Amino acid sequence: MVRFSPILITLITASHAFQQHLPIQNFFSRALVTTTPFIAANPASSVNNSSNNPRNSRQPMRMIGGILDLLSGGDGGMISPEKALKGRAEKMAGIKGLKHYVLGNDLEEVPEGYEVAVFANGCFWGSEKAIWRLPKGIHSTAVGYCAGYTPNPTYNEACSSMTGHTEGVRVVYNPKEISFVDIMRMFWESHDPTQYMGQGNDRGSQYRSGFYYFNDDQKRLIEASKEAYEKQLGRKIQTQVAAASDYDKYGGLWYFAEPYHQQYLAKPGARPYCSAQPQGVSLAPFESWAPADLQEKYKPKLPETFWKKHGPVRGCSVVRFDNEPISESSY
């Protein structure tokens, strides 16, 4: 057993207080009476100790990030722009020309007539897989860091909660084959949007729920569906809804993550990790919540038979599914 100093125990207790969404002033008194030991994992049990292997680096960064997130100031979880890391001008290495591991298309390209959606709903590995498996219309998916203040952050920087980013997914899709509403529905149903600054065991602003719009139609659809889903869940939704343009002054909404994170769950040796907490509640029928003037243009292209057969169920299950897109003949 490894025993840690009272200072570290205080920080761990602070992280626990944040997870419970307790007032920050409460955690100091709790730390004084905390006696639970912290047992460190045996380094020898690690299969691969490479610092570039996300299976090894991810869990410690979660814990450290959660602690730093609590102590970073701001609104009880978000660092302020003036305190964020400075970042760099250089873009993420290895992304230019990179092809989607499953779909085979260039990650950066947006073909003419195609559109982009960006959202965040917990650990980006599972979030991305849920979208690339949609049966049609998805040109590419990518994981990255969005809605923060630090230009071109690294994984370790984003996980420290010192950049303001959340782990996100960028979707390039053909609106003639799949609707923005289909992607948005998968977003809502694939996690618990009522959780504050985190998802499941992943705590901190880098795991917060968010959807970021590129035009007024997207904004109205996100806000209308949020209101409907909140009523269905019976709890306040914590999802951040913001314009992509709000982040132009910080260098932009979106930054690609490292190549080894892209389509991670489809790669050999991937750790089947997912922290999302789907609630098993289907979004109400489109016609019941969508603005009347948007219903014809954005009506869903995936039928209810798809959602009954392949929609998210309570608890995270996407890691168990095949990597290839779902066959239209299956529903």
TL;DR?
The chain is α+β, with helices and mostly antiparallel strands and 331 residues long. It contains ten helices and eight strands.
Cross-sheet strand order for the largest sheet = 7-6-1-3-2-8
Quaternary state, please? single chain
Q: What is the number of helices?
A: 10
- For the secondary structure, the number of strands is 8
Secondary-structure-derived class: alpha+beta
Q: Unreliable stretches, pLDDT < 50, 5 or more residues?
A: 1-52, 68-76
Helical amount:
25-40%
What is the beta-strand fraction? Answer: 5-15%
How many strands, which pairing sense, and closed or not: the largest β-sheet? 6 strands, mixed
* Global mean pLDDT: 83
Q: Roughly how many Å is the radius of gyration?
A: 20 Å
Distance between the termini: 52 Å
Specify the overall morphology.
globular
Order of helices and strands: HHHEHEHEHEEEHEEHHH
Can you give a write-up of this model?
The longest helix is centred in the N-terminal third of the chain and has 18 residues, at 54-71. Helix 1 (6-19) crosses helix 2 (26-32), helix 1 packs across helix 3 (54-71) and helix 6 (180-189) packs parallel to helix 7 (216-233). Helix content is 29%, strand content 11%. By secondary structure, it is of the alpha+beta class. The protein has a 6-stranded mixed beta sheet with strand order 7-6-1-3-2-8, covered by helices on one side. Strands 4-5 form a two-stranded antiparallel sheet. It is globular, with a radius of gyration of 20 Å. It contains 10 helices and 8 strands.
